[in-house]
Amino acid sequence: MYSGPVRICVSCRTRRPQAELLRVTAGHDGAVVIEGRRHRAPGRGAYVCNDPSCVERASKSSALRRALRRDDVDSSELRRGLEDFMEEINNGRKQSGEAQSS
User: Fold this and answer.
1) What's the predicted TM-score (pTM) here?
2) What mean pLDDT is predicted for residues 40-46?
């Protein structure tokens, strides 16, 4: 079925290979750290699909706070961070597409 580690999105509860998901961790001060494929930040993490609807649901629900076991996670900071991360990914795809077509 899947090769490698499989994780569950805290928003849609879909099982996916770890490499396809974003890992979210919360620092000691509640600051949100969002990682792409390089899952290296220490501490408890939760996984979210890189689908905008999953990102939005995760930032609005309490599922992410429960998964991180933290009450001090700032949902507005999380939403902003996830949106910025998704924008960086999309910009990277556009740039690599432009470089290939030239």
Assistant:
1) 0.72
2) 81
